[in-house]
Specification:
The complex is a heterodimer. By secondary structure, chain A is mainly α. Chain A contains eleven helices and two strands. Chain A has one domain (about 50-60, about 75-280): Orthogonal Bundle (MetI-like fold), CATH 1.10.3720.10. In chain A, about 75% of the residues lie in helices and about 0% in strands. In chain A, a hairpin with a 2-residue loop joins strand 1 and strand 2 (about 40). Chain A is globular, with a radius of gyration of 24 Å. Chain B starts with 8 loop residues before the first strand and ends in a 21-residue tail after the last helix. The chains are: A mainly alpha, B alpha/beta. Chains A and B meet through helix 8 and helix 9 of A and strand 6 and helix 2 of B. Bound molecules: adenosine-5'-diphosphate and magnesium ion. Magnesium ion binds near residues 54 and 55 of chain B.
Amino acid sequence: MKWLIAQFRRRLVSILMLLAMAGIWQILSTIYTAEAVPGEPMVPGWQIVFSRTLLSLSDYWQGGLGVPSVAEGAPQSYLAALLSILDHSVDTIVRLYVGLLIGGLVGSLLGMAVSWSPWTRRIVDLPVQLLRTLPLLAMVPMFQLWFGIDFVGKIAFVGYGVGVIFFAGVVNAVKNVPQIYIDNARTLGASRLQIYRTVVMPAIFPEMRGTILLSLGIGWAAVLGAEYLGAQSGLGYVIIYSEQFAYLDRMFVVALIFVFYASISYAIFDRLSRRLLQWTPQAGRVVAHG
Amino acid sequence: MARAADGRDVIVASNLSRTFRRADRQMVTALDDVTFGIDRGQFVCLVGPSGCGKSTLLKLIAGLMLPSSGALEVEGESVTQPGPERGMVFQQDSVFPWLRVIDNVEYGLKCRGVGRAERRKSAEFYLERVGLSHVARAWPRELSGGMLKRVAVATVFANGANVLLLDEPFGAVDYVTKRNLHDVLLALWTEAGSTERRTVVFVTHDVDEALILADRILVMHSGRIVDDLAVTAPRPRTTDGLMEPTMVRHKHVLLAHLGLENLQGDAKAPTGGEGTEP
Ligand SMILES: Nc1ncnc2c1ncn2[C@@H]1O[C@H](COP(=O)(O)OP(=O)(O)O)[C@@H](O)[C@H]1O
Ligand SMILES: [Mg+2]
């Protein structure tokens, strides 16, 4: 309890800011009453979002678990709405993180290959640098034709979008590893593989933090982009489906769900990386007290 | 000037040269046709003004770079790459900031597959010797500059190198700490017994430091070895010992080489010097 109060006090200003943003939205919704189509306000107020809109998400529930779907003739229900949010979220999140993992791994390995030896540099550098310049969103249709509109196509697309960012980040960060640490490891008897594992990887991590955060953002954009164009499930599918009927309020709710997930993944990553970065001089730095 | 190599030498350099091509396209000769041999177990100090090629020579011995011409052998084998038998303490801080102090000291042993218990024991032993047992679990960022140097020294000793290359290791350390570090270094070096002593090449531009530490002082100037002094004063070398006539003479010679003195009185003029080398 004490801890909760302390947390609350520490975050009081942030909480107030959040409430203020929600309040402004509400005020906007009463001032600006235009509608996209009759009955669909451009700026849906919270009273609509938390009742009609939420309930309407049960339209996207495909049935199962003993909860019948709207398509089967059942009325809209909050339970079906919740299940449908979870169901579509899981699809999107799995696509996102499998893609992130594969893209991050492949991109990092290729990035390190650039500094591994003159030969690996010659083989890897130019082709990947060229791939990197391809505009991501323009590639969505091509990926669908190449890899199909199912799981593989979306994973490949997210992996590609994230991979090229990791590649650039790693290449750049490795360049900044101080020579002294590599020399030190070599004189202590480390092999090249050991140097990459025990010197290069920890040394580039602080710089890679920014890259990883960026790739989380790009990853979300990529998975939604892939879902817009041909998916039968996922949050991107819900948005595109809503757009066809100008259901602005539903899109707004899905956007809020994104914010929620993104905040969680940023928070988790922050905690993890803080643990991994205990050694940095910046750990626990404050510019001024107060 | 430097004595030519003979059979007992651990390090043998023959007509060793190294040139660099600077970014402005000028060629710099950092090491110019150097020939010398260093005995097993000797504590050799390399003295000379900055830019005279000391670090270059050390990096060549370490195998961190290759000579432009000439030959360099350690333990009878040509040096082509770094190896754990040649440990180096760098002029800059080289302690890995992402490893705790004790993990730094264990690093080389771990790389070479020494078992966990054994390497921990060795690391603890050397940390204790350099007086840092109490910060074994600390992060390097929590240590002072002098403490980091001690970690680096413990690391190369724990790694079991036969040849220790120290590049101005205590250059940026305050006087008191420096004297303490000399004691630590000499204790680690002497306790092995004169037959198993490690060979040390210690770079410095501090004349007193060289006189306290060295069996032998090689003086460098513009990429050449211009003098070779045997320092036979008994150890441990006390302040009084440094005022013995032979030591004072050595000091005059060294200062003259550094261009700080013209030799007068009973001090002998330096016999080496640029251009007079045979
Ligand atoms: N990597 C390098 N590139 C170009 N010039 C270098 C390089 N390393 C050393 N030098 C030059 O070689 C000479 C000797 O340098 P160094 O061995 O570092 O001297 P010291 O350690 O005695 O101060 C200097 O003139 C320096 O500018
Ligand atoms: Mg130097």
